[in-house]
Amino acid sequence: MNYPARGSIAEIEEGTTLQPLFDGHGLMPCVTQDAATGEVLMVGWMNREALTTTLETGMAHYWSRARQKLWAKGEQSGEAQRVKRILIDDDQDCLLIQVELTGGASCHVGYRSCFFRELQWRAGHTDFHLRYLETAKVYDPVAAYGAPQHG
Amino acid sequence: MNYPARGSIAEIEEGTTLQPLFDGHGLMPCVTQDAATGEVLMVGWMNREALTTTLETGMAHYWSRARQKLWAKGEQSGEAQRVKRILIDDDQDCLLIQVELTGGASCHVGYRSCFFRELQWRAGHTDFHLRYLETAKVYDPVAAYGAPQHG
Prior knowledge:
The structure is a homodimer of 151-residue chains. Chain A has 151 residues and is of the alpha+beta class. The first copy, chain A, is 14% helix and 34% strand. Chain A has helices at 9-14, 48-57, 141-145; strands at 28-34, 40-46, 61-64, 69-72, 81-88, 95-101, 117-122, 125-132. The first copy, chain A, has a four-stranded mixed beta sheet with strand order 2-1-6-5. The first copy, chain A, has a two-stranded antiparallel ribbon with strand order 3-4. Chain A is globular and about 45 Å long. Chains A and B meet through helix 1, strand 1, strand 2, helix 2 and strand 5 of A and helix 1, strand 1, strand 2, helix 2 and strand 5 of B. Strand 5 of chain A pairs antiparallel with strand 7 of chain B.
């Protein structure tokens, strides 16, 4: 899919035409949010092919930087994402997609969200300890992937 | 601030110690979410200095890639972010911060969220038209910045 060329700053920032900017590696970050709850599930990367396939199929596709290939979310784990809405930021170099999980998880470690840990912190006091926000894995990643996976 | 060194994959992904990974440019993406509503407000970038200053002050600081300098959010616009919670993802290369807006906006264009436009789309049908999700600017960016700003 060919995307519209970038126009003026005014067109990009306040216009009504998608004019996406992919970075020097051909990638754009994509925040993925639960459409129902607003929970941030993950941050992935899309290249033109991943965005196009997402638009054509309605299912989230990313570019796996670790595996250097198009990644149909859930292709191994079964934990896919049905896309409900696609938003873009002011300078059109970052996507936000709102999805429904077809399973109940998004994270390859087995948790619902990749952001399952919170830093123990208050202003001026940090001890680098991470507290778990989820108490149990939604699925068994070893059963899903066969071995620990990344990307 | 010196951060703990990266350990094994198991320590990074399932451990309870912050072991952040900054990319080849010394940066890590940071998703910024409204602590009360879950709305995604922006995606910024933090280097070690920005993260340290955020931890020390409790106010969101980013690295401005456009200006190549530490960016105390709100330093020009007055639209600052008080940090309530800091989460990190499974492989510890992406941050999620939940904030309270000291004003009522986050976006340098003047809207509440940088993601103020939605793509007109359903699976297999895309016309590249963006629909506005916010109807009015929260503040006047020209008054705040003097001229259009980026970063």
